[in-house]
Amino acid sequence: MEKRLIKNDIALAVEKSSAFNGAKSMVIVEKILEELKSALLREEKIEIRGFGSFRIVSKKTGFGRDIRRQKQIKIVEGKRIKFRSGQELKHISDAS
Predict the structure, then answer these.
(1) Are residues 58 and 94 in the same domain?
(2) How large is the average pLDDT for residues 62-90?
(3) Domain membership of residue 10 as a residue range
(4) Distances (CA, A) of 44 to 34, 36, 51, 53, 69
(5) Residues 14 and 54 both lie in one domain
(6) pLDDT in tens, 2-37
């Protein structure tokens, strides 16, 4: 079974490494995540040094294949979030 890091785990880590109590650390984590979401909605690039960057990219229209049904399907235009890991994160993933 794979381990998962959830929002509460991050709030507990903030609580342990700072003077904030549990409720205050959860508010801080929530506020950070809200700001990241709203920046992406404004289509701004988010850059966290050493961790990575997030940005919105456009997805072009085109055609793909549904291999299960052997049909061609239309891919509609849209947007998606693209993540690019930072140097420090790359070194961690290369070491494992």
Answers:
(1) yes
(2) 90
(3) 1-42
(4) 14, 9, 17, 11, 39
(5) no
(6) 899 999 999 999 999 999 998 999 999 999 999 999
